[in-house]
């Protein structure tokens, strides 16, 4: 039976560590600040934004929420982001994705000051991750690496398979596993022999967005299985991309859904906000070195 990697417990540790760092900064007169921008009425996005706000408050991080209507004009969103770029109390800016139809996500992300880009989605930060010289790591993959580190699961020399190649999860996940010396394969919807590739994985990360997509016959006995998925099963119940019960019987480690990767994502956002506050106070004239 696989050992559960308890993302809730690990994220609680990280949040407690972050709260201490926030206090240390406050003692120096610095209050880390995060602005969260929500456009439209997507219920899942609203839930995520509320969770982020609550987590900020609990850690002592100042936060501002901007809720804009779905029909917001692109220029108005640019204006808001630009104002936040120049706002001293704000060290981190997060624009909740996905944006409603008609708004160009890429341009909006590119408008965010890379030093305030706590999601690490700006091309400048993505490039830095590629070369291993980063300011921030994207929250979900960073949270997964943190779970592996804290569970003392080494990926060095191991076969790591990431199913999914999105810019926010799959690609950066693969890069972080590579930085930790994993031998990484990325799979996607056009991959041939997906099952066979997954069966070779010592570390299998599922970021597909399809409920129970990874079945037991795709998992090598003893593999470490990380489930990024936040899906709904046939009864509308929250589940992951991994068929949890049968897979947990043969894996060595597994992350549950809920209570695995999800809580880690928020904890890493708090940590990135604190990092942003530290960097901006260490390098006030940061625009010059962007
Ligand atoms: P996404 O942008 O939709 O990407 C899904 C990826 O899965 C794509 O690369 C796609 O391949 C691949 N895929 C789809 N069908 C496939 C198939 N039949 N075989 C192989 N690959 C297939 O999703 P995402 O944003 O990366 O998110 C993935 C999941 O993680 C979702 O359930 C999301 O809700 C969840 N998530 C959770 C957190 C968290 O904090 N827990 C954070 C972010 C996302 P193509 O590129 O070829 O289309």
From TrEMBL:
One of its GO terms (molecular function) is methylenetetrahydrofolate dehydrogenase (NADP+) activity. It catalyses: (6R)-5,10-methenyltetrahydrofolate + H2O = (6R)-10-formyltetrahydrofolate + H(+); (6R)-5,10-methylene-5,6,7,8-tetrahydrofolate + NADP(+) = (6R)-5,10-methenyltetrahydrofolate + NADPH. It comes from Caproicibacter fermentans. GO terms for biological process: L-histidine biosynthetic process; methionine biosynthetic process; purine nucleotide biosynthetic process; tetrahydrofolate interconversion. Keywords: Amino-acid biosynthesis, Histidine biosynthesis, Hydrolase, Methionine biosynthesis, Multifunctional enzyme, NADP, One-carbon metabolism, Oxidoreductase, Purine biosynthesis. NADP(+) binds at residues 164-166. Catalyzes the oxidation of 5,10-methylenetetrahydrofolate to 5,10-methenyltetrahydrofolate and then the hydrolysis of 5,10-methenyltetrahydrofolate to 10-formyltetrahydrofolate. Pathway: One-carbon metabolism; tetrahydrofolate interconversion. NCBIfam families: PRK10792.1, PRK14186.1. Residues 138-280 form the Tetrahydrofolate dehydrogenase/cyclohydrolase NAD(P)-binding domain. Its EC number is 1.5.1.5, 3.5.4.9. The lineage of its organism: Bacteria, Bacillati, Bacillota, Clostridia, Eubacteriales. The keyword NADP applies. Homodimer. InterPro entries: Aminoacid_DH-like_N_sf, NAD(P)-bd_dom_sf, THF_DH/CycHdrlase, THF_DH/CycHdrlase_cat_dom, THF_DH/CycHdrlase_CS, THF_DH/CycHdrlase_NAD-bd_dom. PANTHER family: C-1-TETRAHYDROFOLATE SYNTHASE, CYTOPLASMIC, C-1-TETRAHYDROFOLATE SYNTHASE, CYTOPLASMIC-RELATED. Belongs to the tetrahydrofolate dehydrogenase/cyclohydrolase family. It holds the Pfam family THF_DHG_CYH. Gene3D superfamilies: Leucine Dehydrogenase, chain A, domain 1, NAD(P)-binding Rossmann-like Domain. This is Bifunctional protein FolD. Residues 5-119 form the Tetrahydrofolate dehydrogenase/cyclohydrolase catalytic domain. SUPFAM superfamilies: Aminoacid dehydrogenase-like, N-terminal domain (SSF53223), NAD(P)-binding Rossmann-fold domains (SSF51735). GO terms for cellular component: cytosol.
